[in-house]
Specification:
The chain has 185 residues and is mainly alpha-helical. Helix content is 70%, strand content 0%. The chain is elongated, with a radius of gyration of 19 Å.
Length: 185
């Protein structure tokens, strides 16, 4: 097997694996498939972790994951697909960051891995075993990479920043006890 064949096969496997996982994860949000909670349940969860309005946040995350993952798996519009999926995973990582890195403890390891894989594919390209290659890279031009990441970074910064402000504002109303209860007796 030639080196270029190995590279294309490797990219195909990465795209199918990461794209398939992202698409399945997104359909949990959108349709309740694979044990998911659908838009309503996911929307309630999104509200509980500071993404508001919850239903719209669930829809946006579900579309980015499902659409980005499906397009990555197909190798179509790879820059936009990878950037969208990476943005969705950045939003998920923000939720899990207070729990540390490792997924076992509720950390952001899983979201970071999927996001970095999607971003890496967006930058590297889909390889020859892809719809982008078949269509002459009409939606996979070099200028699309920075454009897709700039748009995604701006949107993600706005959404994650608004969430952080909501969480800070909610915490402002809370006051910690000045003394432990056992000392109050």
């Amino acid at each position: 097997m030639k080196r270029t064949d190995r590279r294309d096969l490797g990219l195909l496997l990465l795209r199918l694996g990461a794209g398939g996982v992202l698409a399945a994860h997104g359909t949990q949000k959108l349709f309740g498939w694979f044990g998911g909670h659908g838009i309503e349940g996911t929307g309630q969860f999104m509200e509980s972790v500071g993404y508001s309005p919850g239903k719209q946040s669930a829809t946006a995350a579900g579309l980015a994951e499902t659409g980005g993952g499906t397009l990555l798996a197909l190798g179509l519009a790879t820059p936009a697909a990878g950037a969208a999926a990476a943005g969705a995973m950045a939003g998920a990582a923000a939720v899990h960051a207070p729990n540390g890195f490792f997924n076992q403890g509720g950390g952001y390891e899983y979201a970071a891995t999927l996001g970095l894989t999607a971003a890496g594919l967006a930058i590297t390209g889909p390889g020859r075993l892809s719809l982008d290659h078949l269509l002459g890279h009409a939606v996979n031009r070099g200028w699309m990479i920075p454009a897709a990441f700039a748009a995604t970074a701006a949107g993600t910064a706005v959404v994650v920043g608004a969430r952080a402000r909501r969480l800070r504002k909610a915490k402002e109303g809370e006051q910690e006890a000045l003394f432990e209860e056992e000392y109050m007796e």
